[in-house]
Amino acid sequence: MTNDLVTTNQFDLPLDPDAVDIEVLKAAMGVADDDQLGNNLPRLSIEYDSEYIDEDAEEAAKAAGKKYKPEPLPRSHYKITFQTDWDAEEPSGDYVTAYAEEAEFLPIVITNRYQIFNLEEEKMVLSTELYRNWEQTIVDDNGGEQSARSYKKKMLPKYQHLVKEDRDFRCKNALFGLLTMKSAVDRHGKKVKVKDVPCEWYTQGASFMPVAEALTEIKKRGLLPCNRVMQLTTGREKNGTNTYFPVQVEWGTKHIDISPEIMQLTIDFGATVDAENDAIRAKFEAKHAKNEAEALAATVIDQSLDDDLDDEIPF
Predict the structure, then answer these.
(1) What is residue 215's three-state secondary structure?
(2) Measured distance CA(279)–CA(275) in Å, rounded
(3) pTM for this model (two decimals)
(4) pLDDT digits (tens, 9 = 90+) for 204-219
(5) Cβ count within 10 A of residue 82
(6) Taking Cα atoms as reference points, which of 138, 141, 145, 147 lies closest to residue 162?
């Protein structure tokens, strides 16, 4: 994992914010009006584990005949794993996981995607392209193609064999921006500097609507999401034996002007999105090529059987 961004992009944006067409900028940021919303970036998430188990330390303790005690983790806190000196000219390659009760996120590029996660195998079994608005036609890595707005409804019957429960088939917010944690610490309680770290942030389930509604709200106010900082905390909800920590969002009051730095990040984040989509589309095309080859082979076999039968029938 690195903090690197890809740096080629489909949107030809100038670095001068005064020289850009606002509709082009909205499209690049993924907030264009709906009438006309795998990379190496660190990912912001919420800690759901209550303890950390160091397998090497556990084995050593077992070999020494001692009892291993897992390290407690700050459950419900925001967390991110990133390079400690990510902004240095030559980063050391050292990583740290930082935790904080509260976080500030400046959203720059807004996208969504559908994914199916297999809980038993603990792996993603389907991903669509990242899309910037609901009118886009999107493809997935299993050969599916559909309008973003009707994707799940139309594709669920096709992918029913991949879905054990409806909640396994999720639409997610996928945001790209800058993260700041003012009171961040590592799992040992040591302070960690987290200031304007480029990252991605996926939200789903109970956290999907709070983020989606916050983005709708800022749009209705005539602002771009990057004109304000998202101030993030978490709530606590229970559903049976399961406990959830849904995202809670408040917009900061300080206005942030579009700067050359934000323009550059829009270009770079956009290029990261494009590169990930290229990978999904390559899998989509490979799946189609395989299906076509199998269909052709089946046709040849059927024709061969028909020819054999014709030879045997005496009339």
Answers:
(1) helix
(2) 7
(3) 0.82
(4) 999 999 999 999 999 9
(5) 23
(6) 141
